[in-house]
Amino acid sequence: MKLYAFMFAMVCWLFSVSTASLAAQSLEGYIVDSLTEKGLPYANVSLNLTNKGTSTSEEGHFLLSIATYTPQDSLVISFIGYQPQTIAVSDAMQQTELLVKLQPEVSVLDEVVVTNSAIAYSAGTENLGVHHKKTAYPMSVPFGYEVATLIDNPQHKAGRLEAIQFKLKEKEKEGYTIFKAYFRLSFYEVNNGFPGTYLSSANIIIVPDGSNTVKIPLEAYHIRFPETGLFVGIETIAPEDHSEHKGMYLTTPNILFTHTDTQRYFKRYRGKEWTQQQSKSVFKPKLYNVPYMKLKVRYRK
């Protein structure tokens, strides 16, 4: 009887240790607006030292596995229009559930466009971007990655964005798990050849509806078109939690790429540093890969 009681106690102890270990391998919490305390949808949460992260749900909830973190690591939390926040993982581990309140940034750029709404613009619009090549091919971009395309301003005068168009394609591949993706659009100033400051704090989420061509009106966002051009970012977002998946996967729909004779394509992971991409076209090795993109711009008179 004593042996049975001892064995039962050991099983209970092992179970409790196992449960505690599992709990210690993940961080859970909410990312909210510091003023309204409403959840921020699809905010980015990642480990600083590795490209491992997740995004929040529509309610601002997140669950992040940290089984491989180091004591020096930290959480990097970011969301468009808000000041990013960094939290030491060792501190976060002391809390059962995190509540991260992000401070909104004051967008002077947006205010300038709104207050100068009386500025006269031309009646016609111009189509700019990377859309003249006939060759186009789909590429799967993993969750959390953002690809940015440089759009030149050939007239070197200010304007505003009227609309954007890019292309998607549903695609599957044998041997890979396929996950549905959403996309987030962002717009950046050009800073020493790299994407710089946001031109808009709007959280523009694209929910694919099966169409190959995505057309988004932009007049309501009051996004200016600088004399030096701008970058357009497309971030791949997971609408559902796939953190338990360990194998290879592809996102769908794929972003349609084409090619250009100049390098104008950048990439980053969950709001971290941008890296310039040098990938060459599989069809024409002397040309560079770049997302297919068309912007409708209205210039100032």
Automatic annotation (TrEMBL):
Where are the annotated coiled coils located?
none
Query: What top-level branch of life does the organism fall under?
Result: Bacteria
Instruction: From the UniProt annotation, give the residues forming the signal peptide.
Output: 1-23
Q: Which InterPro entries match?
A: CarboxyPept-like_regulatory
Q: Which UniProt keywords apply?
A: Signal
Protein name as annotated: CarboxypepD_reg-like domain-containing protein
Q: What is the lineage of its organism?
A: Bacteria, Pseudomonadati, Bacteroidota, Flavobacteriia, Flavobacteriales
